[in-house]
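Entry under discussion copied across for reference:
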Amino acid sequence: MVPELPPLPALTRAEGELVDAYLEVVDLLGKINPSRGTHTYGALRAAQALVGRAEALREALTLMHMRGEHEVHADTLARALRVLDGERRTGRVTVQDSQAS
């Protein structure tokens, strides 16, 4: 049996969009990462998509700011990122260990 994940913390809609867009940007950066990639075409497609996802990230932050959400609740957002496998996903952005190749 697969262990049950902890529940996602309560987030505003804009915070949820921020977390989602951030992880999508991270996933794309992981595909572009030259220390992990194998084909230029996949990296090119990810780079092209990155522009749109960066705009979504900007829009989520703009919406938060316009709604008066001037503080980022880092602990809550970090919990949400962990539930959504953010640690593994952000790990793909780092330079791959040469011994892992």
Q: What stands out?
A: The radius of gyration is 16 Å. Residues 13-93 form one domain. The chain has one domain: 13-93.
